[in-house]
Amino acid sequence: MPSFMRKISIISRCAMMYRAEKLKDTGLGGVHLSYILALCRHPGMSQEQIARHIYINKSNVTRHLAQLEQKGFVERRQNEKDRREQLVYPTQKAYDVLPELTALIRDWNEYLTEGFSDEEMEQFNAMLDRIARRATDAVNKEFEENSPLDH
C-alpha cells in the first residue's frame, strides 16, 4: 500500500509554498499562519502552550515567535504569576491580517476539494479527524511518558 503520509506531506509542503507566495506582501511566511491563528484565538499562551497547541517543537516556536515579534505581529510579556514564563499576545497588526489569513485557508481548502460532493466531504473529514486524533494521542502520550516532571 502506498504511504498516505507521503501524500499528506506533499499536500502540507505545497500548502506552505502557496501560503508563502500569497503572504509575501504581508511580511509573513507560510509557517507563520498557524501562530497568528492560534494567538488571535487564544491570546496570552506561553511558548510551551503554543508548541503543544500547533504541534511544533519548542525550538522552532522560539525562532518563529522571534521573527513574528521583530515584524510586529506578536509581543511577549512576562507572566506576572510566574516570572520565568513569557506569554505571547497578538498585536493589532496580527488582528488586521487575520481576515486575509482565514480567506487564504478557505480558498486553498476549496481549491483542493473542488468537485467533492457533500457526502465525500463528510467522509473525508471524518477520516482525517480519526487520523488526526490518533496522531495527537500518540504524540501527547509520548510527551507525557517522557515529561521531566515524571522523573
Give structural attributes.
Arc Repressor Mutant, subunit A, three-stranded antiparallel beta sheet, mainly alpha
Walk me through what this model shows:
The protein has 2 domains: 1-96, Arc Repressor Mutant, subunit A, CATH 1.10.10.10; 113-151. The chain is built from 6 helices and 3 strands, in the order H-H-E-H-H-E-E-H-H. It has helices at 4-23, 32-41, 47-54, 58-70, 92-112, 118-145, and strands spanning 45-46, 74-78, 86-90. A hairpin with a 7-residue loop joins strand 2 (74-78) and strand 3 (86-90). The longest helix has 28 residues, at 118-145. It is globular. It starts with a helix and ends in a 6-residue tail after the last helix.
Q: How would you summarize this macromolecular structure in one to three sentences?
A:
With 151 residues, the protein is mainly alpha-helical.
Which shape, going by the Cα principal axes? globular
What number is the mean pLDDT?
A: 91
- Report the uncertain regions: none
From N to C, what is the helix and strand string?
A: HHEHHEEHH
Tell me the domain tally: 2
Number of strands: 3
Amount of helix: 55-70%
The name of the CATH architecture of the largest domain is Orthogonal Bundle
Distance separating the two termini: 40 Å
CATH H-level superfamily title of the largest domain: Winged helix-like DNA-binding domain superfamily/Winged helix DNA-binding domain
| Total of helices | 6
Taking strands numbered 1, 2, ... along the chain, how are they ordered across the largest sheet?
Answer: 1-3-2
